[in-house]
């Protein structure tokens, strides 16, 4: 048992897990993100850790597959002796009753942790995610100046190929996935003092709420939420919470106010890493614009044929060879599935597409020692890509774009070991995202 740990989280995909890694690291919490729940021997190899994450794949699983995976992971994390265990989900609450059910994760978590309620915080204002009277709003593109939409009217999320958002009220959204009652601490109640807020929570619990959803619109509302959440945490009886990286932001801000942490405000500039290798399984229009920018600014483009990969024709050899040729010419390369072509992506499961991208990265990096940085785009495919790349864990190097930190990979026995890696969700970044990762300047 590691009683020095403040928090352990289980992410439902890889890109979301690196998002939580970033905000913990910024708060001054030394954190490592693992592919699987670490053994005591693995933990011993990472010194001075105050938090750990596990990058799962439950966002792309049906509930019956999620249950045994989460039950085992939650029990292992509970036994670490940490104050908090967090099930980290996407800040756009990607889920449905049949894929990536957050309700199923809540049900399993309640059975493992036996707490009197589960805090739910999805808002992350610094990422352009706002929850007001229980309804979720999202900016078009994290780290951009895009317009803000109610989730069910969001141009990208309402048309997501796997979990399209057709309900912005998170209470109604969850009601399709769990029978547990969701109470709301709304934006007006948050303006009251801590005693009044605590009384509201007590009233919600007396009314039968099993889950308490916290609104948030501004960053300065997170520290009081963190104070409330932390008051229920204990190293021998950890609090189980669910939400976006808003959980890490809220706890980090509160721990800073009481002097328990010293935030990191200056990061080393990692500098340029040319040529850059980019692999994208995202069909988000945000990523499509980034791909268009990259190809217009000198990146070589290789488009994956989903039908041929699905048929197992061995076409990966051609992709690898073409990428190696471009790299040998000194050109950065972007390998993708056709931008916003959701029909292309539907031909391949997240597992097959992500594994394909990861194997391509592993082979190309193995043949091209000049590659020092790899970028993977796409939340649903990233977990499989990271596993195929042979990654054991990542630690943050520096923030280049909010919500998608640059990390160093530990990947024993893989050519990916020791190089820079960046995993981004489909909604993350401005149009010049891949240029920013190529240049490597801290914002």
UniProtKB/TrEMBL annotation:
Molecular function terms from GO: ATP binding; kinase activity
Presence of the UniProt keyword Kinase in the record: yes
Keyword Ligase: no
Protein name listed in UniProt: Four-carbon acid sugar kinase family protein
Signal peptide span: none
Keywords associated with the record: ATP-binding, Carbohydrate metabolism, Kinase, Nucleotide-binding, Transferase
Domain of life the protein comes from: Bacteria
Domain Four-carbon acid sugar kinase nucleotide binding: 277-434
Entry's family note: Belongs to the four-carbon acid sugar kinase family.
SUPFAM superfamilies assigned: YgbK-like
Domain Four-carbon acid sugar kinase N-terminal: 7-251
